[in-house]
Amino acid sequence: xxxxxxxxxxxxxxxxxxxxxEVRRNDRHNLxxxxxxxxxxxxxxxxxxxxxxxxxxxxxxxxxxxxRASDGAYTSLDDVYAQPSRRxxxxxxxxxxxxxxxxxxNFAPPTLLPLDGWVFNTxxxxxxxxxxxxxxxxxxxxxxxxEQAKVASLVAQLQGQEQAALEQMRARAAQRQARxxxxxxxxxVGRSQSPFSSRWAKxxxxRAxxxxxxxxxxxxxxxxxIEEKLRRVHGATRDSSxxxxxxxxxxxxxxxxxxxxxxx
Length: 264
Fold this sequence. Notes:
The protein is mostly helical and 264 residues long. The protein is 64% helix and 4% strand. The chain is built from seven helices and four strands; from the N terminus they run E-E-H-H-H-E-E-H-H-H-H. A hairpin with a 5-residue loop joins strand 3 and strand 4 (126-128). Helix 1 runs parallel beside helix 3.
């Protein structure tokens, strides 16, 4: 076979006379098919040999160098032997669904889709294998136990986070209380030394029994003084009213005198 300039194989390889491989003129195109990537994946998964993974990487690098368009998409080629090869401006759907998927699985861990639990259809879609009978019961019990362990682990994780959050809140509260304690102490000391507090202290002292008794006696003396003043005022008013009543009688006495006396 002639060397491949791009590292990309042609679509069809035929056998000529004497079973010699040859590539016909109409079979030099490439459609980004997935069969080679699929074969490399299964053979590498079953044998564990790294050379199949290296071959898958060389295949992907060749596609990227020869089939990748400027906008990031991949396209089919008309002739893999031509330099440069003319691109067809089309990307088959199996490029994304199969070729890239198998290339990815070549580098994924074997436990991602183990062959004893999954099977691939013709379009590389993985389907789970469901066991029957006793195997199904055992698998269901194992799955339930795994689910319970996962839930228990999640619950323990959440409880730990909640406990850590509570401890953090308590620490913040203690820090705030320690920060506010000196301020409250100064506030209360200031109140005890203010004149407002001394005024209240005086009022509290005035409520003592001896103080109340002295105030009562003082009030009683004031009331007596007020009564005495009222009594004096009342007496003065009565004397003036009697003087006013006596004045008309004196005038009448004068009028009752004789005219000669009045004229004189």
